[in-house]
């Protein structure tokens, strides 16, 4: 039996659920299905076993605390627990055919377009993703109660963790990306760059913070959220021409009946205005038009303009455990190269991913007519994406670079990149090499901060 057929059969055996496009509301799973989170599935909702040839290991708990011997203390950049690993092999344009069945469409396009410099260094796989035990307990409860509402545009009867750890539909898989545990209060300073084709760039520096009400331990039900699942402020620090711009977002849980609420302070006008354009295909903040508002983090915001179809599950070489890419031992000049990130510092591993396809509804508009996403089975986060224009041609691709922040623990991406094949440029967002690490314990933040008056004060 071929390895490709074995992988296909393994994916089919994973679940007897109807993993196809969602229609209207989807029901929670029965108790016997939810019980799988303690047997053949991990408490994250992924397959507990490794693959047949051992190249994907079984999940044994992940990095639940800082590994011994690293000398890590909170407030440090995260030492790489896998620094002793040697690359198994390197995928290039010349040999990509040998690995084609384990490459995403985005990776194939990067190798084909930039193959003289783009490569993929593949390392041993480590299923490092972990969450606190109280999140696993929330996942177990959510599996029994969580439902999709408003034809895929909202969630109810779930709180904290993943709303659908045993998913029934493409919409539920998407919401597992949109919602999940990232701790309650967070703060960071980061950089974004949009290099020219020659590699020159101007650094955008910004500070952001958030209260993720979805993860508030004091909130026990979705109804208590009052439909506000997160509060967010983004304060741009440089360059001078955009310094002082501040954005405030109240992210909603049901995004059709009550869309995202956003405000923007501009130092040029010294006014705070509502900002409904911070959504959908409007240009992303500080992106120079290199990406859309709903592309940050892989995908964010309302899903209502697309029909979402779950295509299945596969094994793929994806960015994973990219501690080196976040390291304070590197500068931004070390990381940034013409046309793409310096792939000497990007780590790929073999993992199982869900493939999710979004097709634009005929009655709506968006610059992307079709989007294909690949979500890591353990974290449910988007790690790779393909973005097609109105003609159906591949326009841009995205990668996210996950790690497990083992002091919490939280598994996810602070950094991502989007590559544009029409002009040879890209945008990288979330660089922290020259900044302080992400603070997952910003307990001083209070909800009363997240008001239009506050951002007026910050921007002065």
UniProtKB/TrEMBL annotation:
Q: Where are the residues of the annotated region Disordered?
A: 276-296
Provide the alphabetized UniProt keywords: Signal
Residue ranges, compositional bias (Polar residues): 283-295
CDD domains tied to this protein:
LolA_like (cd16329)
User: One Pfam family of this protein, by short name?
Assistant: DUF1329
Query: Keyword Transport on this protein?
Result: no
Q: Which first-to-last residue range defines the signal peptide?
A: 1-27
Q: Which InterPro entries match?
A: DUF1329
What is the name of the protein in this document?
DUF1329 domain-containing protein
What's the source species for this entry? Pyruvatibacter mobilis
């Amino acid at each position: 039996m071929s390895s490709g057929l074995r992988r296909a059969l393994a994916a089919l055996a994973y679940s007897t659920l109807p993993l196809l496009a969602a229609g209207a509301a989807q029901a929670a799973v029965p108790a016997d299905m939810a019980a799988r989170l303690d047997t053949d599935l991990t408490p994250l909702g992924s397959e507990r076993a490794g693959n047949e040839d051992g190249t994907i290991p079984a999940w044994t708990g992940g990095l639940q605390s800082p590994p011994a011997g690293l000398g890590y203390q909170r407030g440090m950049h995260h030492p790489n627990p896998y620094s002793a690993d040697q690359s198994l092999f390197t995928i290039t344009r010349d040999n990509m055919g040998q690995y084609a069945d384990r490459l995403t469409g985005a990776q194939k396009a990067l190798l084909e377009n930039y193959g003289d410099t783009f490569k993929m260094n593949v390392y041993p796989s480590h299923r490092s993703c972990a969450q606190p035990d109280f999140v696993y307990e929330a996942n177990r409860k959510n599996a029994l109660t969580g439902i999709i509402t408003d034809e895929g545009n909202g969630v109810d009867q779930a709180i904290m963790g993943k709303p659908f750890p045993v998913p029934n539909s493409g919409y539920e898989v998407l919401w597992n990306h949109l919602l999940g545990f990232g701790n309650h209060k967070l703060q960071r300073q980061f950089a974004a760059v949009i290099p020219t084709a020659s590699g020159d760039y101007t650094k955008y520096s910004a500070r952001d913070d958030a209260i993720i009400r979805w993860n508030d331990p004091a909130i026990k039900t979705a109804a208590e959220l009052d439909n506000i699942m997160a509060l967010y402020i983004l304060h741009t620090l440089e360059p001078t021409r955009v310094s002082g711009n501040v954005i405030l977002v109240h992210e909603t849980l049901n995004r059709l009946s009550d869309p995202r609420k956003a405000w923007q302070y501009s130092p040029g006008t010294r006014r705070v205005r509502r900002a409904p354009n911070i959504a959908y295909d409007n240009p992303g903040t500080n992106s120079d038009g290199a990406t859309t508002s709903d592309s940050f983090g892989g995908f964010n915001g309302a899903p209502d303009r697309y029909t979402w179809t779950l295509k299945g599950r596969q094994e793929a070489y994806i960015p994973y455990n990219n501690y080196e890419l976040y390291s304070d031992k590197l500068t931004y000049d070390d990381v940034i190269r013409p046309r793409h990130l310096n792939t000497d510092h990007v780590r790929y591993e073999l993992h199982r991913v869900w493939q999710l396809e979004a097709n634009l509804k005929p009655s709506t508009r968006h610059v992307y007519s079709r989007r294909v996403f690949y979500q890591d089975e353990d974290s449910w986060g988007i790690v790779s994406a393909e973005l097609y224009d109105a003609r159906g041609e591949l326009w841009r691709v995205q990668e996210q670079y996950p790690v497990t922040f083992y002091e919490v623990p939280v598994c996810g991406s602070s950094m991502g990149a989007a590559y544009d094949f029409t002009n040879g440029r890209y945008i990288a967002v979330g660089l922290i090499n020259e900044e302080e690490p992400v603070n997952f314990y910003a307990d001083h933040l209070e909800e009363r901060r997240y008001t239009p008056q506050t951002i007026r004060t910050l921007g002065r």
